[in-house]
């Protein structure tokens, strides 16, 4: 239970005879005590490197890591009270699951009976009771992953670092483990950073999300802030499923001209000088196919009925890029059909085409 701060944290991997890799390029982050921060970003953007530096498994090239007011830089991993569950599990093969979970508790001054009680309790929560006397070698990857998670949690660390902790679980187990993780994290107040590729997981677990690209944090905010007010084109494009429509255009008299025939009003309160090149962003759920104000004309190119919604790929006159609209599941459209549409003016975003930054 401690707050954590990363200050201008950097990592450059130096490799003999090959160019250096600047994996983390100056991260500043404050994680208040008890917060679960989701770290999202494409493969290779520096997420694991960041966690490994916090855990002490990787030397920092520059900057500081402060936990509970104390700098961690230079301390060996065992002197940082940080729990980790990483992709490689790092379980001890000769020890049983029970012994793996209990490992390190006595070194932390927990007496034997209390340690055994904690292990039993955690095993029950993470559904490992039946596996307590097994050795890791005989476990499936999903089971190993749950052991690694339970081991990190049972130590009651100041800070918990989770790198794709549920990636090998099947759908049902992922749901139950996710719920249990959230409850434990809340109840015990672990300050947590969670790396995941799964946006739904990030949204359901995280108090705030940091989106990272090329070793740099692009935006930090609540899941709603990241989704509703993306700071730049990268964040808009990276977060959200189905992905946001991004349509280049030019500002002309309070509207954005996407083509000779198609103009979209600028969002309320946004002023941009005429002639400026911008990109209009609108999520498929905000492309509205009904209502008296639906003044744009489109043609259905493809309609995909899905379980909980439909997705219509639309062509707008003179606009190169197709526009995807999300429809209610009962809607049925046919290829070639003409539709009227509009972009929800309260949920349309405008980005500077050159810098990619949101214009507000
Ligand atoms: N030991 C290393 N030596 C050299 N380069 C490395 C090393 N570890 C990571 N890198 C490089 O650093 C960059 C960041 O890697 P990192 O593993 O932190 O990415 P990541 O965000 O965790 O990606 P993923 O989502 O695929 O796990 C990548 O370009 C990677 O190739
Ligand atoms: Mg990684």
Q: What is the gist of this entry?
A:
With 360 residues, the protein is of the alpha+beta class. It has two domains: 4-234, Rossmann fold (3-Layer(aba) Sandwich); 244-352, Nucleic acid-binding proteins (OB fold (Dihydrolipoamide Acetyltransferase, E2P)), CATH 2.40.50. Helices cover 22% and strands 33% of the residues.
Written overview of the protein:
The protein is α+β, with helices and mostly antiparallel strands. The protein has two domains: 231 residues, 3-Layer(aba) Sandwich (Rossmann fold); 109 residues, OB fold (Dihydrolipoamide Acetyltransferase, E2P), CATH 2.40.50. Helices cover 22% and strands 33% of the residues. The strands form four sheets. A six-stranded mixed sheet has the order 6-7-8-3-9-10, sandwiched between helices. Strands 13-12-11-14-20 form a five-stranded antiparallel sheet. It has a five-stranded antiparallel sheet with strand order 15-19-16-17-18, with no helix packed on it. Strand 11 and strand 12 form a beta hairpin. It is elongated, with a radius of gyration of 24 Å. The two termini are 37 Å apart. The mean pLDDT is 95. It binds adenosine-5'-triphosphate and magnesium ion.
